Amino acid sequence: MIKMRDTTCLWLICLLIGQFYAQSQASPVESDNGNQEEYQDDDYDYGDEDDAGTDTVPPVEPASIDPPYFEQEFVSLRAKPGDNVVINCDVRNFQLSNAVMWYKNQTIIANGQIAISNRVEGMKNNSILIKNVTPEDADEYYCLVLPEQIRQHTSLMVGARLSILCDGLDITDRSQTFKQGDHHKLECRTYMATSTNIKWSLNGHRLESSDTENGVIILDNIDESNVGVYQCLGDDGSRDPPHGMVTIDVHYSPKVSTHRHHVNAIEGGHAELYCNYRANPIALSFFIKDAQTLQISEKYSIKNSFHEGHNRTTLLVKNIEASDLGEYLCHAENAIGSNEVKIQLSYNPETPQFEDMTIDGNKVTLHWLVRSLQPLSEAMLDYQLTGSYTWSTVTVLKTQHHNQTGGIWKITHQMELKPGLWHAHVKTKNTHGWSNFSPDHEFQIKSDDADSSIDDVDMPPPDDLVRAGFGVGNVAPTLVQLPGITLLSVLLLRLQL
Ligand SMILES: *[C@@H]1O[C@H](CO)[C@@H](O)[C@H](O)[C@H]1NC(C)=O
Ligand SMILES: *[C@@H]1O[C@H](CO)[C@@H](O)[C@H](O)[C@H]1NC(C)=O
Ligand SMILES: *[C@@H]1O[C@H](CO)[C@@H](O)[C@H](O)[C@H]1NC(C)=O
Ligand SMILES: *[C@@H]1O[C@H](CO)[C@@H](O)[C@H](O)[C@H]1NC(C)=O
């Protein structure tokens, strides 16, 4: 019984295929349920697995010739604008009694080999030729074979829906390497009947339409900042808008920098000089002092590392003496070019770096960090209200407190200022000399409501302002008189723990 059922299934499948086959040949076949029941009954009657096909098709007369048919009823063609396209009518068993009609969608375009539309040429083998196709030629084409009325459907697509051109060449979904300083034009084109809104993005961030006039991006004086994945979307309002991408790489000469332009050292100690660089293709880096390339020796060792997106070469200068002081060059070069950065090694303190600040009303507390293995003897703070011509200066103090091994000092200063945009910078002195001034730090003191700010200025400075400093024993409060404003300034040097 089980075997019987299996056979029935097989029969059903064969019948369905048979029907599809019959329909596809455009020979009308009745396919209502009644018929299927009948065939199924046949299966039970004959129990024969191999003759399914012969039962569904009416017996052919041995003398007659097989009817024409298509091996493929649907063909999909894609062409680029400008191509010459042949659309075949790939009919088998074509007889002298058969005729071919060509349709473009609903319109007749060729009668046999005689073209009716001027866009096409008929060919001897019943194919048609469309020269120099344009997006307007993209359509559904049908080759109809008479009198059987069987047809082959060819869908012609012209052009990608979207392509990205670089200087006129199609680079859609490819990668491209540019050279620093080059000039290139990226253009995104859509080939669609509906109008599209071209949208560009770089590394996932939408580019402003001002940068992309009519879907064109002009890359001028190319550098590392142009590296990335460019995506173009032809927004036609549909759920599946056409899109494409290109990956742009840029070859550039090394970009060399250091985070410590001045390195403090102590006689007999060691110092590390840092050279950070980025390059594509990869670069070679080395240090130069007094026009000599430094080699690994008793005096120097060199370490290469990778640090926060750039490569770093570190020069270790050992057992420092006066002749080691001075200017070091870090030189990096690759196939595109070379660059250098200067690093000063000295006994002076390093340039102070702004650390952080707090503002409470018109009271500001500023912190800088300074490296000096030698004790700091002095610090100087200059500050200025934007728009005024003079700098005010606070010079303070010696301190006994320092960390010999760490060599990091913290400078803290608190003062009361009138509202406005202020600048401040500091420099420090150690037993050998002065550092450079730190870069300007800008900060804004906001005005409260007008009445209270006048009151504040006239009021004597509150006690807790003095106590807010660190290490009360070392505090040297300084009163600075500015026109119309009294300032209390406390500058402190403090050990960094
Ligand atoms: C018909 O002729 C053209 C041109 O000779 C040829 O490219 C095409 O492949 C032919 N088609 C068939 C179905 O042979
Ligand atoms: C084909 O013709 C039908 C009916 O005229 C029309 O709706 C359809 O848009 C046409 N298709 C193309 C691709 O022109
Ligand atoms: C760092 O150097 C390595 C080879 O030493 C190289 O592969 C890499 O690209 C470099 N990175 C940068 C940011 O230059
Ligand atoms: C100085 O600082 C270093 C590291 O910053 C630390 O290891 C050392 O203990 C400190 N020395 C003193 C005396 O506090």
UniProtKB/TrEMBL annotation:
It comes from the Eukaryota. InterPro entries: Cell_Adh-Cytoskel_Orgn, Ig-like_dom, Ig-like_dom_sf, Ig-like_fold, Ig_I-set, Ig_sub, Ig_sub2. One of its GO terms (biological process) is homophilic cell adhesion via plasma membrane adhesion molecules. Keywords: Immunoglobulin domain, Signal. Pfam families: I-set, Ig_3. GO terms for cellular component: axon; neuronal cell body; plasma membrane. The keyword Metal-binding does not apply. Residues 67-145, 147-232, 254-346 form the Ig-like domain. Residues 27-63 are annotated as: Disordered. Residues 1-26 form the signal peptide. One of its GO terms (molecular function) is axon guidance receptor activity. Residues 38-53 have a biased composition (Acidic residues). This is Ig-like domain-containing protein. It comes from Drosophila willistoni (Fruit fly). The gene is Dwil\GK20813.
